[in-house]
Amino acid sequence: EAQVTQNPRYLITVTGKKLTVTCSQNMNHEYMSWYRQDPGLGLRQIYYSMNVEVTDKGDVPEGYKVSRKEKRNFPLILESPSPNQTSLYFCASSLFLSGTGLSGANVLTFGAGSRLTVL
Amino acid sequence: AQKITQTQPGMFVQEKEAVTLDCTYDTSDQSYGLFWYKQPSSGEMIFLIYQGSYDEQNATEGRYSLNFQKARKSANLVISASQLGDSAMYFCAMREGQIRMDSSYKLIFGSGTRLLVRP
Questions:
Q1: What digits encode the pLDDT tens for the residues A69-99?
Q2: Contacts for B67-75 with beta carbons within 8 Å, 24 or more apart?
Q3: How confident is the model at residue B102 (pLDDT cuts 50, 70, 90)?
Q4: Mutate to test the interface with B, among A10, A34, A43 (most CBs of B within 10 A)
Q5: Which end of chain A has fewer CB atoms surrounding its CB within 10 Å, N or C?
Q6: Is B99 close to A102, i.e. CB distance below 8 A?
Q7: Would you call B98 and A99 a contact, using CB atoms and an 8 Å cutoff?
Q8: What single DSSP character describes residue A39?
């Protein structure tokens, strides 16, 4: 089954304890991205990756790191988590089809979400 | 300035009736895409429907249709014959510009509308 898999789905941790949320997709997608969802704010992009070894900041990158060593994996790293990073996190992926802005949806496929609580 | 506005934080609809969820957007790009996603209580993000800015016909997918009014910059989601399983949070999102190697392909999300379907 074509999917984006995130782990863990739920995590409670304490301030300052490094953690990694893994993301893996089996659709051979070039593009991968991380979003966080907070009440009243919708989803906001944290980081994205156009392909292996190519990553860049989204709208809210502070406090996060990412890496893209393999096409299928795009882990999100919180080096020193703080309570304001308590959120619902989504990994998403898509085929990258250059020049298809006029046609084709380039639909983002989302993972099931990872609910993180930082105490 | 907010790029995607969903003015209805919550809505009720009677089962089997139609409902319209509002979405207005703001962009100066001529090429853009509009998406609707559904988020049930389980938390995953489910793609529903897509409308490209150059698409002349309103998009339809089963019971979902997108009422696209370009001059008004609105992209309302219409759900016909509501079912109990339609109870969820609904997000409108926009991708600005064409897909290019130097673009981030970011989706900008609204704050969502929670729909409750009454039996």
A1: 999 999 999 999 999 999 999 999 987 655 4
A2: B67/B20, B68/B34, B72/B24, B73/B24, B73/B25, B73/B26, B73/B27, B74/B22, B74/B23, B74/B24, B74/B25, B75/B23, B75/B24, B75/B25, B75/B34, B75/B36, B75/B51
A3: low
A4: A43
A5: N
A6: no
A7: yes
A8: T
